């Protein structure tokens, strides 16, 4: 009897070791340990054996059953691990492959692209790019820039105030003062960024973008301003462009000018090839692109102790709207198109 038990055990152990799938292993479990299997039957029959055999046979059969259960569990764990390994191997995904269909990568928003282009032009001319706070002190936004206490832009109907003396900057010009406080002359900087005004129609949004420019040294003149802006205009609007300066007024420059670029739709003639009036420049041959001027001595006086003695230094400043530059260049009729985020509009500038 005991020999038979050992034989069953040896046979079963061999078969379990050779099983290659979990299903085969389960079959072996039923065959050797199931209700109708020989070994459990032997165990059940132990009670009927002569008393002197019961102990030894019972022990041998029990040990054999436990040994087989343990073998099956161990082999099961092995097979499970192997199957998992194989599945992982088979299902391996290369996440670096392009999707199918490949996802579109997208492109820069026209305003970002325009801003970067403007930055590139001025970097090429030796200007540094700096950014400043959009939440600004009224002192920097107005007072230090020589604005009269009664200047209309100070009104709450025109400007977003956070408190009596803190506001959303209405232009990038306050960076002139902030940077002169931090850097002694000579400096040549541009300051791109967002600005805010209480305005909303086809040519005004409450938030828009400007690029400010500032160059200060002992000998900077209006001719430097004109040459710089001519280089800028030619880079952005084409090599044949010219610029002209018209007298204007800004509180923080003296003299102040508005700067026009010769019209690139009619090549500055004001008329189209068919003789009709040019609609872009309204027949004038010129398009206004920005405001500029020589830094007002009162602005230097504000930063005098930082190395800007108005008797010693002079410089130019300018400020332009990025939206305006992009609209002119691409013939965009409505400022709000930049912010509607209609992909059909934006895609044209990819
Ligand atoms: N800050 C002016 C504006 O927002 C633009 C401007 C004009 C900036 C003349 C300048 C300047 O630096 O010299 O309308």
Concise account of the structure shown:
The chain is an alpha+beta fold and 350 residues long. The protein contains 12 helices and 10 strands.
How would you portray this structure in words?
It is a single chain. This protein is α+β, with helices and mostly antiparallel strands and 350 residues long. The protein has two domains: 2-90, no CATH class; 110-349, Bira Bifunctional Protein, Domain 2 (BirA Bifunctional Protein, domain 2, 2-Layer Sandwich). The protein is 41% helix and 19% strand. The protein has twelve helices and ten strands. The strands form two sheets. A seven-stranded mixed beta sheet has the order 1-5-6-10-9-8-7, with helices on both faces. It has a three-stranded antiparallel beta sheet with strand order 2-4-3. Helix 1 (2-18) packs parallel to helix 4 (51-90), helix 3 packs antiparallel against helix 4 (51-90) and helix 5 (110-124) packs across helix 8 (222-237). The longest helix is centred in the N-terminal third of the chain and has 40 residues, at 51-90. The site of 3,4-dihydroxyphenylalanine has 11 residues, from strand 9 and strand 10.
Strand count:
10
SSE pattern, N- to C-terminal: HHHHHEEHEEHEEHEEEHEHHH
Which radius of gyration do the C-alpha atoms yield? Answer: 42 Å
Helicity level: 40-55%
Q: Briefly note the CATH topology name of the largest domain.
A: BirA Bifunctional Protein, domain 2
Helix and strand topology:
Blueprint: H1 2-18, H2 22-33, H3 38-44, H4 51-90, H5 110-124, E1 128-129, E2 135-137, H6 138-141, E3 161-163, E4 166-168, H7 174-182, E5 187-196, E6 207-217, H8 222-237, E7 243-250, E8 253-262, E9 286-295, H9 297-302, E10 314-321, H10 322-330, H11 337-340, H12 343-346
Parallel strand pairs: 1-5
Antiparallel strand pairs: 2-4, 3-4, 5-6, 6-10, 7-8, 8-9, 9-10
The chain binds 3,4-dihydroxyphenylalanine.
């Amino acid at each position: 009897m005991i020999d038979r038990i050992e034989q069953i055990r040896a046979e079963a152990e061999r078969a379990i070791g050779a099983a290659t799938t979990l299903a085969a292993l389960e079959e072996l479990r039923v065959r050797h340990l199931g209700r109708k299997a020989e070994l459990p039957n032997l165990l059940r029959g132990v009670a009927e054996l002569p008393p002197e055999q019961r102990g030894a046979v019972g022990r041998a059969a029990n040990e054999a059953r436990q040994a087989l259960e343990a073998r099956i569990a161990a082999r099961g764990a092995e097979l499970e691990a192997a199957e998992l390994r194989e599945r992982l191997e088979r299902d391996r995904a290369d996440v670096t492959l392009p999707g199918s269909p490949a996802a579109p990568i997208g492109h820069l928003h026209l305003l970002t692209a325009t801003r970067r282009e403007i930055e590139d032009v001025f970097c090429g001319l030796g200007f540094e790019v700096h950014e400043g706070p959009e939440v600004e002190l009224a002192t920097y936004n107005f007072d230090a820039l020589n604005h009269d206490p009664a200047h209309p832009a100070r009104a709450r109907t025109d400007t977003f105030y956070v408190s009596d003396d803190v506001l959303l900057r209405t232009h990038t010009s306050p960076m002139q003062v902030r940077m002169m406080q931090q850097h002694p002359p000579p400096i040549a900087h541009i300051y791109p960024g967002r600005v805010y005004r209480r305005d909303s129609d086809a040519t005004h949004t409450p938030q828009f973008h400007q690029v400010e420019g500032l160059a200060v040294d002992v000998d900077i003149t209006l001719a430097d301003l004109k040459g710089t802006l001519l280089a800028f205009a030619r880079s952005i609007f084409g090599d044949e462009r010219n610029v002209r300066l018209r007298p204007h007024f800004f509180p923080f420059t003296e003299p102040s000018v508005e700067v026009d670029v010769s019209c690139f739709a009619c090549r500055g003639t004001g008329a189209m090839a068919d003789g009709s009036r040019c609609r872009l420049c309204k027949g004038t041959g010129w398009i206004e692109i920005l405001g500029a001027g020589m830094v007002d001595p009162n602005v230097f006086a504000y930063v005098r102790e930082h190395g800007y003695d108005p008797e010693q230094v002079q410089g130019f400043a300018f400020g332009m709207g990025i939206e305006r530059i992009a609209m002119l260049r691409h013939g965009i009729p409505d400022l709000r198109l930049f912010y509607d985020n209609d992909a059909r509009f934006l895609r044209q500038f990819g």
